[in-house]
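**User:** Once you have settled down, spend some time on the protein underneath, comparing sequence with structure tokens, and judge whether sequence predicts the tokens.
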Amino acid sequence: MGTIRLTAAQAMVKWLSVQMTPEGQRYIDGMWAIFGHGNVAGMGEALHGYRDVFPTWRGQNEQTMAHAAIAFAKASRRTRAMAVTSSIGPGSTNLVTAAALAHVNRLPLLVVAGDVFATRRPDPVLQQVEDFDDGTVSANDCFRPVSRYYDRISRPEHILSALPRALRVMTDPANCGPAVLAFCQDVQCEAYDYPEEFFEPRVWHIRRPRPDEDELGRVADLIRAARRPVIISGGGTVYSQAEEVLGDFAMRHRIPVAETQAGKSGLAQAHPMNFGASGVDGSAAANAASVGSDLVIGVGTRFQDFTTGSRTLFGADATLVSINVHGYDAAKHGAESLVGDAKVTLQALSGLLGDYRADAPDEAAREDWLLAVDAYCARPGDQGAKPTDGQVIGAVQRAAPSAVAMCAAGTMPGALKLLWKPSQGGYHMEYGYSCMGYEVAGAMGLKLGAPEREVICFVGDGSYMMANSELATAVMRRIPFTVVLTDNRGYGCINRLQTLGCGGEPFNNMYIDCNVEVQPEIDYVMHATAMGAHAVKAAGTDQLEAEIAAARERHVPTVIVIETVARDFPGTGIEASAGEHGFFWDVAVPEVSERARQRDRFVEYLGQIAQARLVN
């Protein structure tokens, strides 16, 4: 067996460049990099040497580079991923938030974080975090709770085992998430005689675990005994590529489908069994079906608090079934577990159910809900008045009905989940971590992962101010997408939660409620233009529609700024009460207050949490 003498960093990049998908593409599409001490010498030299076979992309911030990588993986339905490398210290810790985002959302991400010297010769090195009681700790230990696989490369031969382990986790549908390799900076530059066979191309197949026959039989019996079942479809449906199977299953057995944030657009809104969003920000039709159901069938969902109305959405007598690729998620809320891949499990279930059909769902409720959405999102007659978020969504829907709407935090995630009527695959939401600042970088990564789709990024002024610099990267790389920047002059979503949901007074969220002498007047058009994007301010929804159409002709991002009113839309559930459409969301309320309004809200809150299912 021959060997090749390479530095550890060169060997890592060479190995990554030959890890393939069954379709013949690189599984790791390339590496995002900001160089500093800790990765510029080792990884920098290695990436330069392999630049013709393994691309390197420069971003503006480590966190947002990783957000772009995560969005790429999500758009690729977890069949491909990207890597990110950072320098030691702040470069690495900037990535911790992004790693947490990937971890919560079960999305693959490879982090190669620069680390201290393995030899400890220049100890402490610049930017080194020292633990006075543990000499093995570095800043990169912050990644441990937010990574699915963590390893420290302190010898060049460590990559022989660490790299395959990292990709094994990233391609595992049950344990998928971020893999973090803390790469000691001196070791990156050390040479080693690596076996030639280590660099043979390898194809990574994503398995489809089949369900246990006994579990399958028990769940089939439960469904056959149910009259009013409902399906809650989550992200696992999409990652399993089970959309068509789910649609056929729902039609054949006449079971309405409600969707989570991650599962939305698995079925097109036009599908007759798609009853809309579930939970806190759910539709009247979907939530009514859930409240009245005798069996709730989760498919690829974690039954998160927004999905379940903080455990108040489903009746106390309803049985829960959870089809999930991971036993941990399948057992949540005391559900009857059915562990397996969503696609093959639904196919097997349908075979056992035969000609079973549930009672006819309330189709009139579905139609009434869709009519209500149309009315709420209709073109405003007064184009000179500030539109609501719903009217903005309606304008975008009319201008780009087949686009992928994407977002992450603030008011828009609830509004879009409730009101956007997607084509299949026309929705991309990061809501597991609901990370402000994901939007612009995420839109870039989404467009890289799905270049054939039109991408519309909805972002509020608060999230835009938090992280917008990857606009410049998208301009440099000629990655076109459209940003609809809704400006309500502050953190409008949290202001509503503060005042309506928790009984508080408006404070420190909207600019007008902050302790400042001068209200900021931020020119977002000028700001985006300065980074090279095409930017314009829309005077109303008619101009917004026209600008979205015009953006399709450009090869750089387009930013459309539109001022909106800071008020509720129907069905947010933000007011933390079981409203006409929305449902309860458990956000703790102060037990002691000098204000009567706050005390009254606490009494109301006690009544609401008493309805929650307590089974974990």
Observations:
- The longest strand covers residues 109-115.
- The chain has three domains: 3-203, 213-366, 377-563.
- Confidence is low (pLDDT under 50) at residues 568-581.
- Residues 539 and 562 are 7 Å apart (CA to CA).
